[in-house]
Amino acid sequence: VGYGKFKYSDECDGSVRIWNVKNPQDPERMFRFESPVTCVSFSQYRPQILAVSFYSGLVLLLDIISRSIMVKASNSHYPTYYPVWQVVWYPHEPLETGQCLIACSANGRVFKYKKTRFFASKKIMTVSNPHGVVQGVYRPRKCYSRKITSKLNPSVEVLELHPVDPSLYLVGTSEGCVFICSVNHRHHYIDVFMAHSGPVYSIRFNPFCSKVFLTCGADFCVRIWAEGIFDPLMTLESGLSPVQMALWSPLHSTVIVSITGPNIEIWDVRRRISKPKSSTVSPSRSFNTVIQFSSNKYNLCVGDVDGNVHVLAVTEMPFSPMFQEEVLAQSLQNALMSHPLLLRRLWELG
């Protein structure tokens, strides 16, 4: 678990703590840092290596076997000086050459790190404000001043790798846009669409259908999209609070779990999209920040702004269907019966 700050005005140090569910009182390991932690991610091939990003722009690889801080690699010689919001292991790199990291920062840049002597970064994309009319959802026009022009790039809030194509990845920005990028094109993105009227907080592909993915953001809703169709297939909204994170269930292709304020909501788009199927208040009643399914797929880990981590059991779930992709496709078709043009485009997509 990484500990940092949630609000911009907060002042605190950072730490990484390794917990065991058999001992919820004291962590097995605790590493303290001067800068708040923004993201942690375990390596798939070397599970003792933990990638940690910081608010100061520092990215390092931490070996959690040692009780003291054992840094395997760090970008301290080439820092970015901007908060690094997320780090993702790039699994398609050959293991002989060393696994790579892809990180997104608040200055609109996406970096690729490779374990070398100085852990130098390579810029693979710079996200800028799109020009002209952007396809996607409608966004109210902002009132821009003609005297003051800003050349700052939007912050890249979230990054998600494509589950099938190893060269593609999606990034969500603070302006509400989702950019479809490729690791082979450093200066140009493939496509862009407006997903939300506020910052995009999460992008997740469906584990049973790689053509369907969801996004959630600060405009109080979760939207479901399909590749090549830049109109939302579904919009899930339950209140007037930003959706901090949303996940697909690893057992059901039509079940989505989201966190909105202190509430943990479970949606089943196969049965109802007007309101969540279940809504549970966090035991600490604090603002939730992150959720993650456990490896057995039946438990849900929830973290909040107070540093609490709750492990919840997901009970009374329906049986998993035999043909997950067909059930998801039928659910999307039922929701689009009143939109024949969008339904036809979905059929053409296959």
UniProtKB/TrEMBL annotation:
Keywords: Cell projection, Cilium, Cytoplasm, Cytoskeleton, Flagellum, Repeat, WD repeat. InterPro entries: Dynein_IC, WD40/YVTN_repeat-like_dom_sf, WD40_repeat_dom_sf, WD40_rpt. GO terms for molecular function: dynein heavy chain binding; dynein light chain binding. It is found in: Cytoplasm, Cytoskeleton, Flagellum axoneme; Dynein axonemal particle. Coiled coil: none annotated. WD repeats lie at residues 193-225. GO terms for cellular component: axonemal dynein complex; dynein axonemal particle. GO terms for biological process: cilium movement. PANTHER family: DYNEIN AXONEMAL INTERMEDIATE CHAIN 4, DYNEIN INTERMEDIATE CHAIN. This is Dynein axonemal intermediate chain 4. It comes from Graphocephala atropunctata.
